[in-house]
Amino acid sequence: MTKRASTFVLTAFAFIVITSSSAFAQKAPEFSNDLMMDDQSYGYLIAEKLEYRSVPGINPIMWEVQGYVGKDLNKFWFKSHGEALTTEREAEMEFQGLYSRAIGPYFNIQGGIRYDLAYEGGGNKSRGFAVIGLQGMAPYFFHVDGGMFISGNGDISASVEAEYDLLFTQRLIGQPIFETSVALQDVPEWGVGSGFKNVGLGFRLRYEFAREFAPYIGINWERKLGETADMARAGSGHVNKLSLLGGVRMWF
After folding, report:
1. Is 126 exposed, middle or buried (0-12, 13-18, 19+ CB in 10 A)?
2. What span, in angstroms and rounded, lies between the C-alpha atoms of 14 and 21?
3. Does the first or last residue of the chain, that is N or C, have fewer Cβ atoms within 10 Å of its Cβ?
4. Is residue 107 within 8 Å of residue 134, measured between CB atoms?
5. How far is Cα 177 from Cα 220, in angstroms, rounded to an integer?
6. pLDDT of 122 over the 90 cut
7. In this model, does residue 22 exceed pLDDT 80?
8. Are the CB atoms for 137 and 107 separated by under 8 Å?
9. Dmax over Cα atoms in the chain, in whole Å?
């Protein structure tokens, strides 16, 4: 009897040890915020375009810079683009500050403000907008950035830019670009007519010495349309511009 009792005790003890070890092995890790989605913060800044264009008579320097600070779902975006002439004291630039919210794995909806500033000779002018936009990757890996803008005077306009990366090799990459914009009202002081304002096509060929640094060359064509083109002709401005270009793409 004593022998049977001893056997039973030993068996029970072994069962408890084994099951306890198994339970310990399957125990979930301690809770950590690092495991939660949208907990990590990120920062990103890219100079998508820093380039010199060869255009008869004006030869502008162009830039397009953007970046964000935030988490997976919510971010603050900063965007700027513009051009400065090398032959005259003229420049146009645009700045945007946007709240961005992910609405899927590929797209973000954005809203915020935009501020335009233009220098012409010794004077300057400016205007502000409310912005709502969409940015992300469309099917077939087209990068799309579009927005609708409402100025402080109630003028409504919209623009869209689409680009695509063609990998010839792991370092040599071609990038076709399409852009256009439209306005619902005339804004003569800014040379804007109602309807489609312009259309642009470009191609840039870059070589990535590193992913963060890639010089490029390319070609760009722009044409003003409709009433915007008429205003440009009346002011002896350019309606058609075809340019060769060179620049660098950098990100951090």
Report:
1. exposed
2. 11
3. N
4. yes
5. 9
6. no
7. no
8. yes
9. 115
Taking the CA atoms of 69, 111, 179 and 243 in sequence, report the sign of the dihedral they define: negative
Count up the domains in the chain and report the number.
Answer: 1
Q: What is the pLDDT of residues 75-121, one digit of tens each?
A: 999 999 999 988 778 899 999 999 999 998 899 999 999 999 998 87
Chain position carrying tokens 């040379």: 191
Identify whether 188 is part of a domain.
Answer: yes
Position 107, amino acid? F
d(Cα 167, Cα 170) in Å, to the nearest integer? Answer: 6
User: CATH number, domain at 191?
Assistant: 2.40.160.40
- Asked if the structure places residue 89 within a domain, the reply is yes
Rounded CA separation 135/152 (Å): 24
* Ramachandran class of 226: left when φ > 0, alpha when ψ lies in -120 to 50, beta otherwise: left
pTM equals 0.80
Q: Which domain holds residue 61?
A: 41-251
Q: pLDDT per residue over 143-181, tens digit each?
A: 999 999 999 999 999 999 999 999 999 999 999 999 999
76, burial (CB in 10 Å: exposed 0-12, middle 13-18, buried 19+): middle
In a domain, 15, yes or no: no
Q: Which tens digits make up the pLDDT trace of 65-74?
A: 999 999 989 9
Angle at alpha carbon of residue 183, lines to 179 and 188, rounded to 5°? 115
Asked whether residue 4 is assigned to any structural domain, the reply reads no
